[in-house]
Write a structure and sequence with these properties.
Blueprint (H helix, E strand, L loop, with lengths): L2 H12 L3 H13 L6 H17 L3 H9 L28 H13 L3 H21 L4 H24 L3 H13 L5 H13 L3 H29 L4 H13 L3 H14 L5
Helix pairs in contact: 2-3, 3-4, 3-5, 4-5, 5-6, 6-7, 7-8, 7-9, 8-9, 9-10, 10-11, 11-12
């Protein structure tokens, strides 16, 4: 499978062309264009996604049922050493594992889906332990951990299991994942249980995190274009909201001294 073919699938997904994705998968299968295990699995994932987006959940489940246990030897790189020399681990893309857990929830079987998401969380945390010496991979798997946890917490929130949600969020925070979305959910839960002061602190942290993130993004814009007036102004505003008034003024003064024609 060439990267242009995968890029084509991604482009169709970005445009919401789900029928086209199903047609593309059908043609690839009928013309035997899928030559490797990864090809088969990534196209299967795209097919399941397309079916789900078209609300054909029964067909999506049937498609998923055609796959063996993801952790069996059939889906390890080592089993196909001629195709994947010097590779180890599982061929299964994370997107397929995610869909495997999500589709039961979408079809109304919430408990089965939740159980699968907990299994997926265990898998992700196992990967985090394996990749401790690889900063880039650690960052990727931490994002996936938060991604999975957000769905799990949302399911428990739907059942008003606030105590479970609090425990899950605190556990994730203890692992160093201070995610704005999770903090927002924490604030919502605190409001539900009457902890208004705690909720206010959580929402204040969300605002601070988002402003800090925005400052970094505007700094990147300014590095690319030092005369980007909008980015400079917005960075100064974010610093002001962070109560860093002197830094905010400094940003504007420096730029005005460098580009006096702005006055």
């Amino acid at each position: 499978m060439t990267s242009p073919q995968l890029a084509s699938l991604q482009d169709l997904a970005n445009r919401g062309s789900w029928h086209s994705i199903l047609d593309k998968v059908r043609r690839a299968r009928s013309h035997y264009l899928l030559n490797t295990p990864y090809d088969h699995l990534i196209y299967l994932a795209c097919n399941v996604l397309g079916l789900a987006k078209l609300r054909r959940f029964k067909d999506a489940i049937t498609e998923l049922d055609s796959v063996d246990d993801f952790d069996c030897h059939h889906y390890r790189y080592e089993t196909y050493s001629k195709i994947y020399p010097n590779r180890s681990g599982f061929v299964v893309p994370f997107s397929l594992r995610w869909l495997h857990a999500l589709i039961p929830i979408k079809s109304g079987n919430h408990q089965e889906g939740l159980d699968r998401f907990y299994m997926l969380l265990d898998f992700v945390r196992g990967k985090l332990k394996e990749k401790q010496d690889h900063d880039i991979l650690i960052k990727m798997w931490r994002k996936r951990e938060v991604f999975v946890m957000n769905l799990i917490i949302s399911e428990h929130l739907g059942n008003k299991e606030f105590g479970v949600c609090l425990d899950l969020i605190k556990d994730l925070f203890s692992r160093g994942n201070l995610d704005p979305v999770l903090l927002s959910k924490l604030g919502y839960i605190q409001m539900q249980i009457g902890d208004l002061e705690g909720a206010k602190r959580s929402f204040d942290k969300v605002e601070k995190l988002l402003n800090e993130r925005n400052v970094r993004e505007y700094e990147e814009c300014i590095e690319r274009d030092p005369m980007d007036v909008v980015a400079i102004n917005n960075k100064a505003l974010c610093l002001m909201y962070l109560r860093a008034l002197s830094d905010s003024i400094k940003v504007l003064r420096i730029r005005l001294s460098e580009y006096p024609l702005w006055l």
